[in-house]
Design brief:
By secondary structure, the protein is α+β, with helices and mostly antiparallel strands. The protein contains two helices and three strands, in the order αββαβ. The chain has a three-stranded antiparallel sheet with strand order 2-1-3. The longest helix has 14 residues, at 63-76.
């Protein structure tokens, strides 16, 4: 992935919040590893979704970890990955 810039994120509140998460040096990738721990690498994007009408955003470091987080969230919500609506970096949620 190339250099991150604000233009890579949505223009609204979700995009601003995603940008703040990604640029916060204390944030780390939330993908769960096989050993049970969290990845923790610097995030490059957020996985965005709604729970009871509230925006949730989880930072991830790669597309592979994005897929892991999406699967886990869909399972936690009792949905299939294809039934849940996700966005990335403040874009695409419906």
């Amino acid at each position: 992935m190339g250099r991150l810039n604000r233009e890579s994120f949505g223009t609204g509140q979700a995009g601003q919040r995603a940008w703040e998460i990604i640029t916060d040096p204390q944030e780390g990738c939330t993908a769960k590893l096989k050993n049970g721990g969290l990845c923790g690498k610097p995030p490059r994007m957020t996985v965005d979704y709604d729970v009871l009408g509230e925006l949730e955003q989880q930072p991830v470091c790669s597309k592979n970890h994005q897929k892991l987080v999406r699967r886990k969230v869909a399972l936690d919500l009792g949905k299939s990955e294809n039934d849940a609506t996700f966005g990335i970096n403040g874009r695409g949620r419906a």
